[in-house]
Amino acid sequence: MANHTHAPAPLGGSLFTPFTLLLGTLSAIAGVILLYRLFYGLGAVTNLNDGYPWGIWIAYDVVVGSAFACGGYAMALLVYIFNKGQYHPLVRPALLASLFGYTLAGASVIFDLGRWWNFWHIFWPGYAQVNSVMFEVAVCISAYIVVMWIEFAPAFLEKWGLKDVRQKLNKLLFFFIALGVLLPSMHQSSLGSLLVIFGEQIHPLWQSGMLLPLIYLMTAILLGFAVVIFEATLSSTGFRRQLETPVLAPLAKLMYGLLAAYVVVRVLDLLLRGALGSAFAATWQAFWFWVEMACFVVPLATLATDRARRSAGRLFAGAVLLMLGGFLLRINGFLVGYMTGEGWHYFPSLAELMVTVGLIAFEILAYIYIVRNYPVLPAAQPATR
Amino acid sequence: MDRRTFFKASLAGGTALAAGAASCPAQARETHPMPPEAVGLLFDSVLCVGCKACVAACKQANGMPMEFSTKDQYWDTPLDISGKTLNVIKAYRNGNMEAKDREENGFAFIKKSCMHCVDPSCVSACPVSAMRKDAKTGVVTYDKDACIGCRYCVAACPFGVPRFTYDSPTPQISKCQLCIHRHKDGKYAACAEVCPTGATLYGKVSVLREEAKRRLALKPGEKTEFPRGHLRAAEEKALRGAPEGKGEQRRQGWQDDGAQRYPGVAGQYLQHVYGEKEFGGTQMLMLSGVSFQKLGYPDLPPRSDAATSETLQHTLYGGLIAPIAVLGALTFIARRNVKHEDEEGGQHG
Q1: What's the predicted TM-score (pTM) here?
Q2: How far apart are CA A298 and CA A294, in angstroms?
């Protein structure tokens, strides 16, 4: 894939493999559980309680899930704002993964809302409460989902041969690209701001107050880079294509710079707030804090040189660690470090977990279907084996 | 663009955003002040005998279902506020529980219900205005017809007050609304109405605060009088007729619950009115002989979290100035770069 002038093309191939059947089964199980939830209430399938009113459907499906879906955002930022055209082949596959990540995160929120039939109130003048961080997150995520479908439309239009529409859309695309960079910057930072109002209910290791938006935004972009590397490596392996390491290595260099900046911000914030002391207490919070920090600091060491970043294995491992770190930062902030008083416990129920697993399965399934049938991945020779 | 320019550009963008944020100090949102006509409750743990008449009256007045915590479900036994219970009396116990209102080897009672914060987190958190604070009375109300059931209020409240009915397919938030539905009949909070010792008093917050200060100024063991029910300001009572008056005037006087007083002896109080300063103030004030943290109430700063959260939101999004400016810049850059690509004949999309 060294030659990045190759136009995107459908991969073709069979949709029915043992792997896709497994994905389909997992998706179906999640669907049944969600149906059950609609008739019998959240309590019937989740372990939610008044001490932990938000479980993994929020902390993972929305907060982590949308951050994992920042590949499209990070690539758009790089290619269209910082004008780094060499990463262009990565845009469309990244955007596709983002499209599904966000669309499903948005759809899954509906099932988490207790009074879901009122969800439109968020967008309705008279109901909408603009001081609420939740309002900002909901509106920006919804708008971004629409923008991403528009941004991705050329892939469908190409396939369906609608050249006129495509050309017209292309003329306006720059505006949607700009929106597609602005909106995630807003809601990804606001996902962190959600924690501000929890005040002292959030453990000091994660209650960064006014810096929360910056910390969540930096890690969202970082995760965007990591996810692109992760997905490019997996789809090269999964679809037996050449590895995209020549494009990924310089990308990793940018990611590395951002990672270093993030670690500085995170540690300085902890120092200035005097919160670092609590990291040495014998608590679960302290333990998970160190695991989280290790996930960010280890890649700082293993990806330090150009040589290291050219190693596909190291790059992949680094990307996985960063994804784990971003995952932990969010789960720690929303669940592990959420202290609402004694006597409350939460661990997701099997049904809750199966919904999240099913959602991920459905995302992968949809991704496979689209790249096999629509022009997303750059046309390339299969790797010889 | 090489890596150096990339970082320069990032830095410039970040600085521009930060400068934009810093240039809007007018957006800083202070903790809201108490509405002058605010009404609330004064709970005096020292006067509370733990009879739980308020718990039963609250259930009746609000049509809430029974809740059981014993094997034989003989009577309503809620252990905490919940989707079915808006108000409970909890017991603090230590050691051999020898003396009331003592931390060591003692016991005490504490009321748990909505604090009606002056600057409530739930109202700031709610994305659909289902949680509102009445501009005049300051009562924090809930409208289930507006609610989407996101439970951000449940998560945000530092007192853990809004609760949710997870077991229902049509769930809703449950919280004390100070019996506003009874106000139109001239009635007030049921918990205060039935409290036999006046441990829970209803009234204007300014009046309740004065009463709380009066009690704190008493010497332990000193003889005094305690009001019961609805505590009104002295001048308000005068307008309603004095209890020693005659005929119609006297009857009005007797109807006035605020006139209910009984002789008692001052207890041992901590010199602290909980809710006077905490979190920017609450409309439920509390007195106690045992530290409030021991009774399950958090030690909160004087600034509300709503003020911090809204300062942040207004700084970033006030008047949509910053987002529109950034969108303008991004549109300009994206347009140039997408065009650039067209000239090169590259693929885009």
Answers
A1: 0.90
A2: 6
d(CA B12, CA B85): 54
Tell me how far CA of residue B38 lies from CA of A146, A350, B181, in angstroms: 45, 47, 16
User: What is the Cα gyration radius of chain B?
Assistant: 27
Tell me, what amino acid is at A197? I
Cβ-based burial of A136 (10 A; exposed 0-12, middle 13-18, buried ≥19): buried
Give the CA count within 13 Å in the CB-facing half-sphere of A276. Answer: 8
Alpha helices in A119-276 (DSSP H): 133-160, 163-193, 212-238, 245-272
The residue of B161, B166, B314, B326 whose CB has the most chain A CBs within 10 angstroms, and thus the best one to mutate to test that interface, is B166
ipTM: 0.92
Alpha-carbon span B3 to B5, nearest angstrom? 5
Stated length of chain B: 349
Q: Are strands B99-100 and B106-112 parallel, antiparallel or unpaired?
A: parallel
CATH 3.50.50.60 fits A18-373, yes or no: no
Quote the pLDDT of residue A4.
44
| Inter-residue contact B227 to B193 (CB < 8 Å) | no
Q: Is the pLDDT of residue A177 over 60?
A: yes
A132 interaction partners in chain B (CB closer than 8 Å): 124-127, 152
- CB nearest B163 (choices: A50, A189, A253): A50
Query: What average pLDDT does range A63-71 have in this prediction?
Result: 95
Q: At residue B253, does pLDDT exceed 60?
A: no
- C-beta of residue B279 within 8 angstroms of C-beta of residue B302: yes
Domain ranges of chain A: 18-373
Q: Which helix (H) or strand (E) holds A19?
A: helix A18-40
Strand order in the sheet with B106-112: B88-93, B106-112, B99-100
> Phi/psi of residue A282, each to 5°?
-85, 70
CB count within 10 Å of CB A141 equals 22
Distance CA A107, CA A98 (A): 14
Q: What percent of chain A has pLDDT over 90?
A: 71
The tokens for B206 are 């300014």
Pairing of strands B140-142, B131-133: antiparallel
Q: Which two tokens stand for residue B205?
A: 């917050």
* Interface test mutation site (partner B, options A6, A57, A115, A188, max chain B beta carbons within 10 A): A115
pLDDT per position as a tens digit, A277-335: 999 999 999 999 999 999 999 999 999 999 999 998 999 999 999 999 999 999 999 99
The answer to whether the CB of A39 falls within 8 A of the CB of A282 is no
Å from B120 to nearest chain A CA? 10
- Rounded Cα gap, residues B331 and B349, in angstroms: 16
Domains of chain B (ranges; CATH) run 3-30+309-341 (no CATH), 39-302 (3.30.70.20)
How many angstroms separate the first and last alpha carbons of chain B? 21
Residues A104-163 pLDDT 10s: 889 889 999 999 999 999 999 999 999 999 999 999 999 999 999 998 888 888 888 888
How many angstroms from the chain centroid is the CA of residue A61? 9
Tally A–B CB contacts below 8 A: 225
Token representation of residue B344: 């090169």
pLDDT above 90 for A88: no
Residue A3's pLDDT is 42
